[in-house]
Write a structure and sequence with these properties.
Elements (H helix, E strand, L loop, with lengths): L5 E6 L4 E8 L3 E9 L1 H5 L6 H23 L8 E7 L3 H18 L3 E5 H12 L7 E6 L4 E6 L5 E6 L5 H11 L6 H9 L24 H16 L6 H26 L4 E5 L6 H13 L4 E2 L3 H4 L4 H12 L18
Parallel strand pairs: 1-4, 4-5, 6-9, 9-10
Antiparallel strand pairs: 1-2, 2-3, 6-7, 7-8
The structure holds 5'-O-[(R)-(carboxyoxy)(hydroxy)phosphoryl]adenosine and zinc ion.
Length: 338
């Protein structure tokens, strides 16, 4: 039997300071997330400078807690993993500086992980035997992509958003509806009381066969609808707006994910990223995938939003092929996914 591989991962790309310990890519020993939501809420979004300062305050206690909760000490670690992009540069740098210092002090390998690959590997953390090739729909605050996963080393981007990410659209529409940051989960809650067929918002299908997305037109349509209604003195039913907007986003995401899976003969579909925590998206995708005879995998909601367990899992596969980073690894805010 292979000896166990114990990885400590650190994630500070946006507004969560996170550390986790995962053994062999599947055994989750600890998963600590210090959220900064309260600090950013009054600004209605993430303020990069404030995020960096909070990461500075939180990084040492969060890592200590992750080790403590795992019942391990630094010397038990086989590698230190860290997100090095994409994300806010000042936020990424805090996690990177810590991870590099730790790897150097312990004389253990450093593993640099792509944030979106981390989101994808939240799926493999829970379902290591997920059938490949798979199509993964990655829907987060910064990205919306369809990724074809042929193996753990071969993948291809099939489509991506041309403007706003799905989560960004949720957050912006939530804001115009007067909901607090972060808007996605709040909008989902409000939508539960609304009628998804009340307002017919546009669906951007783009060119025939395109697997790209576009959400800025939908966002503008919602803003225009609210503007005209208010100008005309009409009473706006926020829950109907939220439900109708959500239905428009979900319909396009689900249809394109299934289309991609069929076209590329995928054996499964994986949902990933913060918006994957959305219950309506999960339900709709599950229903359509069932009809298409395709198994669909969802990570638990707390593994969909930003966390370090997903980074540790991605790092485990990199560890196995000795894909280590040099100690001068830098933050890359717009790191592309290959
Ligand atoms: O992946 P994530 O935690 O951070 C990024 O890498 O961006 O995703 C955060 C995004 C935010 O836009 C948030 O509003 C959205 O995911 N989100 C949701 C839900 N939970 C989080 N959107 C819709 N419904 C949800 N339940
Ligand atoms: Zn993320």
């Amino acid at each position: 039997m292979e000896p166990a591989t114990t990885i400590l991962a650190i994630e500070t790309s946006c507004d969560e300071t996170a550390a986790a310990v995962v053994i062999n890519g599947t055994e989750l020993r600890s998963n600590i997330v210090a959220s900064q939501i309260a600090a950013h809420r009054r600004f209605g979004g993430v303020v990069p400078e404030i995020a960096s300062r909070h990461h500075m305050e939180n990084i040492v206690p969060v890592v200590d807690e992750a080790l403590h909760a795992a019942g391990l000490s630094f010397t038990d670690l086989d590698a230190v993993a860290v997100t090095y992009g994409p994300g806010l540069v000042g936020a990424l740098l805090v996690g990177l500086a810590y991870a590099k210092s730790l790897a150097y002090a312990l004389d253990k390998p450093l593993i640099g992980v792509h944030h979106l690959l981390g989101h994808i590997y939240a799926g493999f953390l829970q379902y290591p035997r997920l059938p490949l090739p798979a199509v993964c729909l990655v829907v987060s605050g910064g990205h919306t992509s369809l990724v074809y996963l042929e193996s753990h080393t071969r993948r291809r981007i099939l489509g991506a958003t041309r403007d706003d990410a799905a989560g960004e659209a949720f957050d912006k529409v939530a804001r115009v509806l007067g909901l607090p940051y972060p808007g996605g989960p709040e909008l989902e809650k409000l939508a539960r009381e609304g009628n998804p067929r009340a307002i017919s918002f546009p669906r951007a299908w783009l060119e025939e066969d395109s697997l790209d997305f576009s959400f800025s037109g939908l966002k503008s349509a919602v803003i225009n609808y609210l503007h005209h209604a208010r100008q005309a003195g009409m009473e706006v039913n926020g829950a109907d707006v939220a439900a109708s907007f959500q239905a428009a986003v979900v319909e396009v995401l689900v249809a394109k994910a299934i289309q991609a899976a069929r076209r590329f003969a995928a054996r499964s579909i994986l949902l990933a990223g913060g918006v994957a925590a959305n219950g309506v998206l999960r339900r709709e995708l599950a229903a359509v995938a069932r009809e298409a005879g395709l198994p669909v995998f969802f990570p638990a909601p707390d593994l969909c939003t930003d966390n370090a367990a997903m980074i540790a899992c991605a790092a485990y596969y990199q560890y196995q092929r000795r894909d280590f980073a040099p100690l001068d690894l830098n933050a890359i805010p717009d790191l592309p996914l290959y």
